[in-house]
Design a protein that fits this description.
By secondary structure, this protein is α/β, with parallel strands linked by helices. It has 14 helices and 12 strands. The chain has 2 domains: 131 residues, Aspartate Aminotransferase, domain 1 (Alpha-Beta Complex), CATH 3.90.1150.10; 235 residues, Aspartate Aminotransferase, domain 2. 50% of the residues are buried.
Length: 376
């Protein structure tokens, strides 16, 4: 039976979530904007899910905007908040290790004339809050710093970032697609203004996401149509997927920290010249990213797949790219090191037996690969 170790890319759907989806799709098929009985039944499911997502984030239901997923939530937060400002000069601060949904949205703003600063990170894959303070300008309108990195799991100091943004009167967005699914989080305790999450990272379905928008934050829509989501995101809502999202949001985070540590320690003990990227940083307890010096990461992924293990070299959105990870390069790694790194992300369904079998497979594949290089 194949073993899945790529939960940061997407998670298996919880059976109860799937039941919620299928029951809603079968029984609640009205348009939530319609005033008749069928429409109002759909509206009730929609608002029930909104309350569920709001509860997960410690927010008011009025502050939850449903979207199609993390990418749209990031784009709505970044493009929508910056375009809402009336100032002629605008400046945005983000980081070099963001997900492409954030980086490419910022590149689009740059084409529109907005100045963008990309904060660097060291080998710990964590920004320095003092660097952020040094980059503040009178026309800075947005700070966007991810909560946790999708490739290394490194958790950013968003409490410090939020305090800096609040003191300067600047809107703060955090991409919480990875962290929001795996840690308890309260938007008011941390002080974010905008926070993105996605259902399929928390054992929900693809095609549903949300953006927390604090009542005081201003955003313009990036899509245009009807008046859904209080004029912030038009389009007929995907009520079955959103209802399933609301159920998934109520599930407790799955703690696989002991399994992750077992995997990490087992590999380090059995594979020469293996190291953990961002090892000294606070990290998501389900994620480890290891560099196997002298081994092709792509070759290892293929070999592990043939052996029955699904792993990744980084963001699934970039899986067709031959370029090395921009995250690992930002940490100071060489292209060779970046191309020799593998991400293992654990979640529901992983077992001790799977972890031990994966350790053995990684050790064997590295040994064979290095031996073949010696004799080639």
């Amino acid at each position: 039976m194949p073993a899945y170790f790529d939960h940061n890319a997407t998670t298996p759907v919880d059976p109860r979530v799937l039941e919620t989806f299928t029951e809603t799709a079968r029984e609640v098929y009205g348009n939530a904007s319609s005033i008749h009985h069928f429409g109002q039944a759909a509206k009730q499911r929609l608002e029930g899910a909104r309350r569920g997502v709001a509860k997960k984030l410690g927010a008011s239901p009025r502050e939850i905007v449903f979207t199609s997923g993390g990418t749209e939530s990031d784009n709505l937060a970044i493009l929508g908040s910056v375009r809402a400002g009336s100032a002629r000069r605008k400046h945005v601060i983000t980081t070099q290790i963001e997900h492409p949904a954030v980086l490419n949205a910022c590149q689009e703003l740059h084409r529109e004339g907005v100045e963008i600063t990309f904060l660097g990170v060291g080998e710990a894959c964590v920004i320095d809050p003092d660097d952020l303070k040094r980059e503040l300008r009178p026309h800075t309108v947005l700070i966007s710093v991810m909560h946790a990195n999708n490739e290394t799991g490194a958790i950013q100091p968003i409490g410090d970032v939020a305090a800096t943004a609040r003191e300067a009167g600047i809107t703060f967005h955090s991409d919480g697609v990875q962290a929001g699914a795996r840690v308890d989080f309260d938007v008011n305790r941390f002080g974010v203004d905008l926070y993105s999450i996605s259902a399929h990272k928390m054992n929900g379905l693809k095609g549903a996401g949300a953006l927390f928008v604090r009542e005081t934050a201003q955003i313009h829509p990036v899509l245009f149509g009807g008046h859904q989501e209080r004029d912030r995101r038009p389009g007929t809502e995907n009520v079955p997927a959103i209802a399933a999202f609301g159920f998934a949001a109520g599930l407790p985070p799955i703690d696989v920290g002991e399994l992750r540590d077992r995997l990490e320690q087992g590999i380090l003990a059995s594979v020469r010249q293996a190291r953990v990227n961002a090892k000294g940083s606070p990290r998501l307890r389900n994620t480890t990213n290891l560099c196997f010096r002298g081994v092709s990461g792509e070759a290892m992924i293929i070999a592990l797949d043939l052996a029955g293990f699904a792993v990744s070299s980084g963001a699934a959105c970039s899986s067709g790219s031959i370029e090395p990870s921009h995250v690992l390069l930002a940490m100071g790694q060489s292209e060779t090191e970046a191309k020799s790194s593998i991400r293992f992300s654990l979640g529901a369904g992983n077992t001790v037996e799977q972890v031990d079998a994966l350790i053995e497979a990684v050790s064997r594949i590295c040994h064979v690969h290095r031996r073949e290089k010696v004799y080639a």
